[in-house]
Amino acid sequence: MQTSSDRHEYPSHWEADVVLRDGGTARIRPITVDDAERLVSFYEQVSDESKYYRFFAPYPRLSAKDVHRFTHHDFVDRVGLAATVGGEFIATVRYDRINADGRAASAPADEAEVAFLVQDAHQGRGVASALLEHIAAVARERDIRRFAAEVLPANTKMIKVFTDAGYQQKRHFEDGVVRLEFDLEPTDRSLAVQRAREQRAEARSVQRLLAPGSVAVIGAGRTPGGVGRSVLDNLREAGFTGRLYAVNKALQEKELDGVPAHRSVRDIAEPVDLAVVAVPAPYVPEVVAECGEHGVQGLVVVSAGYAESGPAGRERQRALVRQARTYGMRIIGPNAFGVINTSPEVRLNASLAPEMPRPGRIGLFAQSGAIGIALLSRLHRRGGGVTGVTGVSTFVSSGNRADVSGNDVLQYWYDDPDTDVALMYLESIGNPRKFTRLARRTAAAKPLVVVQGARHAAAPQGHAVRATRLPHATVSALLRQAGVIRVDTITELVDAGLLLARQPLPAGPRVAILGNSESLGLLTFDACLAEGLRPLPPLDLTTAASAEDFHRALTKALADDRCDAVVVTAIPAVGETSAQDAALAKALRSASASAPAKPVLVVHVELGGLAEALSAAASTAPQAASTAPGAQTPRPAERPATVVSGPPEASPRLIPAYPAAERAVRALGEAVKYAQWRREVADPGKVPEYEDIDEKGAAEQIDELLSRGSGLTLGPEDACALLGRYGIDVHRALPAPTPDEAAAAARTLGYPVALKTTAPHLRHRADLGGVRLDLTDEAQLRRAYTELTDLFGTPEVLRPVVQSMAPRGVDTVVRAVIDPAAGAVLSFGLAGAASELLGDTAHRLVPVTDRDASSLVRSIRTAPLLFGWRGSAPVDTVALEELMLRVSRLVDDHPEVVAVFLEPVVVAPRGLSVLGATVRLARAPVRDDLGPRTLPVV
Q1: Which of 229, 219, 280 shows the shortest CA–CA distance to 250?
Q2: Run of H or E including 319
Q3: Please, are residues 114 and 140 in contact by the beta-carbon 8 Å criterion?
Q4: Rounded CA separation 241/576 (Å)
């Protein structure tokens, strides 16, 4: 437990684990009075040159006065942070608040002098850059807005730390010293620099786990069949290219099936990069300590008995992660299935998968071991899945994902040259805001396909996830906005992966269909329509079609400018020979080569050897049967898609083949939508500037309102005033607690008017009869008032209001809410029970661009009602888009606005009317995605 220094309590929220440039981890925490011995020990290990750069003079040792000064901080005007590994300091940073004369000061002085010292053995790891991010965040919290640093010109490394940080800065030279001054307000460049460093560091941390030079399996027993022994055997049989060790305290032998054996990892003379831990949970802490002391870089913990087992296991899991990070190690697991890297330079199978998958271009991540097994099986199975030269590049099964998560693996895949397509099975998303950001960046470079389990239930027990109020449909919509290809089953995951791995993206939704079965062609045609594609009439080649007929028809279809993709349907003739099967496969490959920019898919109904011929055309594996004895052959609809390819030496274009038209077309539909997203993301639009927005006035009003207390739902007057500052006019509504006051309100507003109830159970429910429209005089108004009170209750219950009539149009709803996990979300739909019941609402993350607003209006299924459906007049969607952009600006500019509900918004042929508005305010939630880099707190 840390001891407070001078004035303030120890700020435990400043503690953080960070990933460094080389992929290792360090802990950053405030320096306290208890750290005197650590500081002296740290200083003794710093070179004389580094000491000279820090103090501008020879400074061999710290005096007692120095130690006191560097360990006693008030955590306001004087703050020191240390980066630690194994509990020992590897670097320090300190700031002292100063006034305009450079003397020690207190608030309101807003400048501080900052200085670093990094142990020589840890220089070049990005420690100083990480410390600068954290000390800057601390300074901003303490109302310090500017740092100053004096650096010797020869200390180029430290000058680079400051200049590369991305802050606005001034630099000048005087008295032989470079003086740097820079503002601490984050800029677009500083945020970009921070995220680029985050990507490199997290990618490197995963790369160290997936491409180790040496692996120790801890818990490998003498008897085959145990978990540790199985992992050891799998590593050996996969041909791991590095050094392999077996570790078990019970081993007396020097070797285990040819693998060097040791009783402890500390007995291994050489460095160990990765340790696979397969011992019972109670023994894991001892193993982790031994690994940390030996310098192991990362752990794959397959041991169970952690958070998945209940509260005691969850605490055991937290302790495991804290212990591993203390030594700078990252963890996959616990309760993990393992990791695989098929690269010929590595050939790592540190998993429980008994066979090494075929090498290929698909990256695979699964939180569930069982689902991971199923996916590997489908992708590996001969005659199904990805065959031949297409297979898996890397596989990670994260188990409880206590440390390494899908976000880290996305960082790795983003610039991994061996991965073209990323497939992920997720049961939870621990940091949706970060995942969405990383997914958008990854999807802009390579396809990312996700299936999410536990959609309608809580996350698995072992997963620590942030609370979100968003329904699954909203999360899915936001993922699609980020370019994620969202599918519902692992079958669809594999189907989409096969198409995207080796076929070009379609240029549009137009699909040509040809084949030797009229019925199968019609099924494909109908499936295309259901997926929103635009199929051309199917071309029936008849059952007598030869391979040459298929070649000629496919070549012609690919040359047709009216089609963007081709689906070939094929049924083999009864008694067809394998030679004819091979001829058809060859004909399709040859024809598809004539148009390399258009994707080709095959739908086949298997009546014999066609599927085997299609697969055999692609396979480079031995042609022995791969079905296990006693296993049932899957039915055609259950079989994974196969692949048609040419000779491997020719770098063939693979053609995926599917046993059902619906599966092929669904995969093609996802590819079409993804290709459209790729085209749109190249020009994402812009957030418009509106000259009539009063941002400063809104901020002042919000501060004044929040001074009354947090968690406010604004009254009508305050809500209308705040919205008005952003150019959002709300139709005035006057209370009508009595018939006489209703008549007076109508005279004020002018006839015609509407009489509405605002009781919670009747509000926005015109279908229940709580609204009377087009009241043209006082007699009609009084009669309507009597009807409402007779039907629904007293005025005290109904809370009636009178409002002037708006032009007729389409009733819509615009909402914006701040979700604690995902951030600000803007939603749009038509008003009414039907849209709400069917969930016909579209969503976008804030800030919304003009392109986002346009697509939002058109994303709902009932959008045709806005554009002149069945002869009705089109409404003013331009005004609607502008309204949504203004709402987006309001919640983006002022995070204290946690909810805005505009309902109904009546969109007329010209203009619109906001008839109801609710605004909620609260203190701005902390944006951890804008702060310094940190690993999730355990």
Answers
A1: 219
A2: helix 311-326
A3: no
A4: 45
Q: Which residue type sits at 922?
A: A
Compute the Cα dihedral for 292, 298, 303, 308 and give only its sign: positive
Find residue 451's DSSP bridge partners. Answer: 425, 487
DSSP secondary structure string for all residues of 394-429: EEEE-TT-SSS-HHHHHHHHHT-TT-SEEEEEES--
3-state secondary structure of 281: helix
Residues belonging to the chain:
938
pLDDT tens digits, 543-576? 899 999 999 999 999 999 999 999 999 987 655 5
Distance between the two ends of the chain, CA-based, in angstroms?
17
pLDDT at site 649: 35
Burial of 385 (C-beta count, 10 Å sphere; 0-12/13-18/19+): buried
Q: What is the pLDDT of residues 24-57, one digit of tens each?
A: 999 999 999 999 999 999 999 999 999 999 999 9
pLDDT over 90 (residue 676): yes
Give backbone dihedrals phi and psi of 135, rounded to 5 degrees, phi first: -70, -30
- Whole-angstrom distance, CA of residue 834 vs CA of residue 814: 16
DSSP state of 889: H
Residue 474 CA to residue 465 CA, distance in Å, equals 17
Distance, CA of 327 to CA of 23 (rounded, Å): 12
Q: What is the 3-state secondary structure (H, E, C) of 778-792?
A: HHHHHHHHHHHHHHH
Neighbours of 440 (CB within 10 A): 19
Task: Give the residue carrying structure tokens 């081709």.
Answer: 566
Q: Residue 243: beta bridge partners?
A: 214
Crossing angle of the two packed helices 432-443 and 472-481, in degrees rounded to 10: 30
Q: Distance between CA atoms of 374 and 380, rounded to whole angstroms?
A: 10
CA-to-CA distance for 77 and 808, rounded, in angstroms?
Answer: 62
| pLDDT score at 455 | 55
Closest CA to 528 of 686, 335, 662, 372: 662
- In 3D, which of 49, 45, 39 has the Cα closest to residue 83? 39
Q: How many CA atoms lie within 13 A of 741 on its CB side?
A: 10
- Residue 3 CA: distances (Å) to CA of 87, 409, 410: 16, 38, 39
**What's this model's pTM, rounded to 2 decimal places?**
0.84
Measuring CA to CA, how many Å separate 430 from each of 367, 460, 464, 558?
A: 12, 12, 7, 44
- Tokens representing 241 are 């290219």
Distances (CA, A) of 123 to 202, 208, 273: 18, 19, 20
Q: What is the pLDDT of residue 339?
A: 97
User: What stretches of 682-712 show up as alpha helix (H) in DSSP?
Assistant: 695-706
Write out pLDDT tens, residues 325-338.
999 999 999 999 99
Torsions phi, psi of 111, nearest 5?
A: -125, 150
Contact assessment for residue 398 and residue 431, using Cβ atoms and an 8 Å cutoff: no
Q: Distance between CA atoms of 165 and 185, rounded to whole angstroms?
A: 12
Residue 789 exposed, middle or buried by CB count within 10 Å (0-12, 13-18, 19+): middle
Count of alpha carbons within 13 angstroms of residue 781, beta-carbon side: 26
Peptide bond into 904 cis (omega under 30): yes
Alpha carbons 893 and 127: distance in angstroms, whole number = 33
Q: Which residue has the tokens 């003086």?
A: 179
The CA distance from 642 to 606, in Å, is 12
The DSSP result for 235-246, as a single string, is HHHHT-SSEEEE
Closest CA to 918 of 722, 725, 757: 722
If one counts every other C-beta atom within 10 angstroms of the C-beta of residue 58, the result is: 8
**AA letter at 553:** A
* Backbone φ and ψ of 114, nearest 5°: -125, 145
The pair of three-digit structure tokens given for residue 17, joined into one six-digit string = 């684990």
- State mean pLDDT over 310-330: 94
Phi/psi at 590 (5° precision): -65, -45
Residue 386: which pLDDT band, with cuts at 50, 70 and 90? very low
Which tokens is 168 given? 């606005």
The tokens for 709 are: 């207390």
